[in-house]
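// run 5 | inverse folding | seed 20
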């Protein structure tokens, strides 16, 4: 069960990081974050952290499914 939480949290963090990056670069407008360099720096950091958390969750799911077959 814990692996699902990591997977969902990681995907949400990665999506948020991608959005912040695009806003910081000025590609996505309509926000006070648009065109602000700080978000172009914070976004990729959050994106990578989210991918790591999602990977850990996915790895946990794979390990858990392998144990059920034993």
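// decoded
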């Amino acid at each position: 069960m814990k692996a699902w939480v990591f997977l969902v949290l990681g995907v949400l963090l990665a999506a948020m990081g991608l959005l912040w990056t695009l806003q910081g670069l000025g590609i996505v407008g309509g926000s006070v974050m648009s065109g602000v360099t700080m978000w172009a720096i914070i976004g990729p950091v959050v994106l990578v952290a989210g991918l790591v958390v999602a990977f850990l969750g996915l790895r946990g799911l794979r390990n858990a499914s392998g144990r059920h077959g034993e």
